[in-house]
Design goal:
CATH superfamily: PhyR, sigma-like (SL) domain
Mean pLDDT: 80
Low-confidence stretches: 79-95
Number of domains: 1
Distance between the termini: 67 Å
CATH topology: Butyryl-CoA Dehydrogenase, subunit A, domain 3
Largest sheet: none
Radius of gyration: 18 Å
Strand content: under 5%
Helix content: 55-70%
Order of helices and strands: HHHHHHHHH
Number of helices: 9
Structural class: mainly alpha
Length: about 170
């Protein structure tokens, strides 16, 4: 029995929805609404679904599409962008737990990284892609991805330790 395009798309998308949402939330933090990126990515992916060579590559195709759309959006909006730290200073009222605060601080710290480092960390650490898959999505070599991960982790550690010192009132050197 032949599935309709809508049924095929939903069958491929539903199992990975949460993973894709986490990626979009973390990747666009402070730049735009993650739902905008999700919706636009899903629309483009649905329209191009027939060009997908294998259902196994759907997740990678979806993430690659999101990365390209975000890169295009950032290229167009570059002069208008403000530093991300100034955009998100308050935590929504519904996020009152300690865990939510930690997630907020992590997203804020991720927003301070270079785009390629942030993207590599999110894809590898949060979304669970292999280095080879991240390299394919970012259209870079595996060694470049490893370098981005290394530098991104180092910078993230600096940012988070700085915020921790401020939070506890220790003097920052």
């Amino acid at each position: 029995m032949i599935k309709s395009k809508e049924q095929r798309f939903l069958a491929l998308y539903e199992p990975i929805h949460d993973r894709f949402e986490r990626f979009c939330r973390a990747r666009v933090y402070g730049e735009m609404e993650y739902t905008d990126l999700m919706n636009e990515t899903l629309l483009v992916t649905f329209e191009k679904l027939d060009s997908l060579k294998s259902d196994d590559s759907f997740l990678s195709y979806l993430f690659s599409t999101a990365v390209r759309l975000l890169a295009n959006s950032n290229r167009k909006m570059k002069p208008e962008r403000m530093p991300s730290i100034e955009k998100e200073q308050s935590i929504p009222a519904s996020d009152s737990t300690e865990h939510s605060m930690e997630v907020h601080l992590l997203h804020r710290a991720l927003a301070e990284l270079k785009d390629d480092q942030r993207e590599a960390l999110i894809l590898f650490e949060i979304s669970g892609f292999s280095i080879r898959e991240v390299a394919g999505i970012q259209e870079a070599s595996e060694s470049a991805v490893k370098q981005r991960l290394k530098r991104g982790r180092e910078r993230l550690a600096q940012i988070l330790s700085f915020e921790s010192e401020i939070k506890t009132g220790k003097e920052v050197s």
